[in-house]
Write a structure and sequence with these properties.
Blueprint: E1 6-12, H1 17-31, E2 39-45, E3 48-52, E4 62-66, H2 73-79, H3 91-96, E5 102-103, H4 104-117, H5 135-149, E6 157-163, H6 186-190, H7 197-214, E7 216-223, H8 230-240, E8 244-247, H9 253-261, E9 275-281, E10 288-294, E11 298-299, E12 319-325, E13 332-337
Helix pairs in contact: 1-4, 2-5, 5-7, 7-8
Length: 341
């Protein structure tokens, strides 16, 4: 039988208490909409990253990762007791991951209890400084967790990030903590005058590549009046076929209704018809070459004589991977006509 869907929630706790309570309520409501056999996991972050062991029934237990440190996938997996084998390829490794990602029916009480007791990040902000938010570290830890816990390419798996502000700590940060330093503007990006942009973009690209290889989509729910750093994370979302919802607050109906649509069942209003782990290959005759593809997909390494030397969009290959799709997903392929007429 097919593997049940997998949802790992990555929740920002560097937000006002009211905002956190609304985000928690949205997740709790979504848990009532998923099938009982669906797998769930929970990661929270602020100054540090917390990975919750939902399989521990006796007490609420979490593993803490330092927010300012950059972790390699093997380091995260070893710290969680998942080993450091190939991503999701070891059955024993996947079984160990069931301490953190497991069927909702097996961890309903623990999941709801953790959400109910979850508090705003305990580390106070310094005067005239932004809150310490380690978004990049949280995404890497969550990615390492899901790739080690769930076998590659067997399930519709989604990593859902709830974000209330810009990353200010650790790898992937887009602005310094000092409020005197303003966050980069669109003009700065155009003029390449944003000193943190390139490094953050490369970091999130690397995390996105791990998600693509595993077949997991990255969804971002950015609810903040200020920028959150979507420009840096955008390629990771696009290559995995994920969703982005951006609004001012978690109480906004745009967030609430959009998030509910992620779990709509066939026949329900707003049903998205999600699928996963597709590949798209183009075969053509000798007088046509493949220039590239536009759409939410990722380039593979497959080559052929029909690949054009002049790429357009996602070029340089004749095959693309689509970790996640919906019924309305669209792709556009560009060709070069090389025959002489």
């Amino acid at each position: 039988p097919p593997h049940p869907p997998v949802y790992v929630f990555v929740l920002d706790t560097c937000v006002p208490e009211e905002e956190l309570n609304i985000a928690k309520a949205a997740i709790t409501q979504s848990l009532q909409m998923i099938p009982e056999e669906a797998y769930v996991g929970l990661v929270t972050f602020g100054t540090h990253v917390h990975v919750y062991e939902l399989g521990c029934e006796a007490i609420a237990r979490s593993y803490v990762f330092k927010g300012s440190k950059e972790y390699q996938p093997q380091m995260v997996q070893e710290a969680l007791g998942l080993g450091a084998g190939r991503q999701g390829s070891n059955p024993q490794q996947a079984q160990a991951g069931r301490r953190f990602i497991l069927p909702f029916a097996d961890c309903e009480f623990q999941m709801n209890s953790v959400l109910e007791e979850l508090q705003v990040d305990a580390f106070p902000s310094v005067s005239e400084h932004r809150l310490s938010r380690c978004t990049g570290t949280a995404l890497q830890v969550a990615t390492s967790l899901i790739t080690a816990s769930i076998p590659r390419g067997v399930a519709l798996s989604r990593l859902m990030l709830f974000l209330g502000g810009a990353a200010t700590e650790g790898p992937g940060k887009v602005v310094d903590k000092e409020l005197a330093e303003s966050i980069r503007s669109h003009k700065d990006l155009v003029k390449e005058a944003a000193p943190l942009h390139k490094k953050a973009l490369q970091y999130y690209d690397k995390v996105g590549a791990q998600l693509v290889a595993h077949g997991t989509g990255l969804d971002i729910f950015a609810c903040s009046l200020d920028q959150v750093g979507l420009a840096e994370m955008k390629p990771a979302v696009e290559h995995t076929g994920g969703m982005v919802v951006q609004t001012d607050t978690f109480s906004n109906s745009v967030f609430k209704e959009s998030f509910k649509r992620m779990f709509a069942k066939p026949g329900d209003p707003g049903f998205l018809g999600m699928t996963s782990n597709a590949t798209f290959e183009v075969l053509c005759s000798r007088d046509v070459k493949i220039a590239g593809l536009l759409g939410c997909a990722a380039v593979t390494e497959k080559k052929s004589p029909s690949v054009s030397d002049v790429p357009i969009g996602l070029g340089g290959t004749c095959m693309w991977k689509l970790p996640t799709m919906v019924e309305t997903s669209s792709l556009a392929v560009y060709f070069d006509i090389v025959a002489n007429h």
